[in-house]
Amino acid sequence: MPSRRSHSKSHHGCTQCKQRQIKCDEARPICGSCSRKQLPCEFQSFAPQTSPHQSIADISLERPGSSVLPLLDLELLHHWHTATATSLADAKPLQEVIRTAMPQEGLANPFLMHSVLAVSALHRALSHGQMYAEAAMTHHSRSLALCTPLLNNITRQNCHALFASSCLVPIFVFASRSPGKTPRVQSLIQVVEAFRLIRGAASVVNQARSWIEGGPLHPLLRVGQFQKPIELAAQRYALALYTRLQSLDLNLPQAGPDTNSVPFTPTQNGSMKNLLDLLQLYLRSGDSRAIMAWPVVVDPSYFDCLLRKERIALLALAFYGSSLKILSGHWWLEGWGEFLLKLAGDYLPGADKELLNMITIAT
Question: Please, what is the average pLDDT of the chain?
Fold first, then answer.
């Protein structure tokens, strides 16, 4: 009697396939089944390491004499130096810090080198396809596995690399969950998850600011310090948005958090004030990081208000989406502004159509 054919059980399938009890092909970031059915695809485990070749991030310290040459990673590192780094900041001094100091720190901290290669791979994937997107997810998973245990033990030695990695997390989160290219971001829950990831990474600064100030990456701490002229169209758009947001902020009691005009909480009012301050900083400096910082500076309880679909929280989200449209030239933010504006509008009552029209400004 012929022996029964063995079957290797997958332990790395996506959550959706496991729930439906079907075999998952484990393709990342979206498996084949979820892609065909246009379902959100989430993995709860890291991708298995099946490649016989180590990453440049792994061999930089562990096997300096290795004869294995990780050509893909070398390509990604070259792409970082020649293209990606300059796309991540507006001011040349910041571009130089990102281009040279980050990889230099990564040589001694493999989790940071994996973060660098992950962002470079996402940037490369824009024009060269799926292979680079898969490489990005692999490097990101490796970075998380190495970095997460260190967040409970931030020291003078590792704080610079952890800070650099925290600067790259928003880029990766926005780019890997681009609304126009993946069904992963479809709901308020998933948007809040993305914002909380960004906020969590930024907590490194709160714990180690004095050490970071004395290190090679300290220019990245100073949002708004490096002046950059704003293009006239972007300046007009930002000024119009600031004026309309200021008008709404002054009339919040009349606007009401819902159609029953329940009084606002300080948290809800604060989310608007935070965005006003950041838009003002952008208009003074031209530093796009000011606008991106909103999920980091809002009160954490704002996200709970958003999940409850409270009216003012949705309006704040709509204004943030409209603010992100100022940065539409940044590759990792593609589609996010329009998506957040539409998502907030889907949950707001019909009486707020006039408010949404006020938020929507022609670019």
Answer: 82
- Which residues, including other chains, have CB under 8 Å from residue 124's CB and lie 6 or more apart? 75, 76, 79, 84, 132
- Dihedrals φ, ψ of 258, to 5°? -150, 180
Q: Name every residue whose Cβ is closer than 8 Å to that of residue 53 and which is 6 or more positions away in sequence.
A: 68, 70
Q: Quote the tokens at residue 349.
A: 């009552």
- Over the range 131-142, which residues count as b (16 or more CB within 10 Å of their CB) and which as e? ebbbbbbbbbbb
Cβ-proximal residues to 240 (8 Å cutoff; 6+ apart), any chain: 361
**30's tokens:** 């979206």
**CATH, domain range 10-43:** 4.10.240.10
Parse the chain into domains and list their residue ranges.
Answer: 10-43, 71-220, 232-253+265-361
65-117 pLDDT tens trace: 455 568 899 999 999 999 999 999 988 999 999 999 999 999 999 999 999 99
pLDDT tens across 264-300, in order?
444 456 888 899 999 999 999 999 999 999 999 999 9
Eight-class DSSP state of 240: H
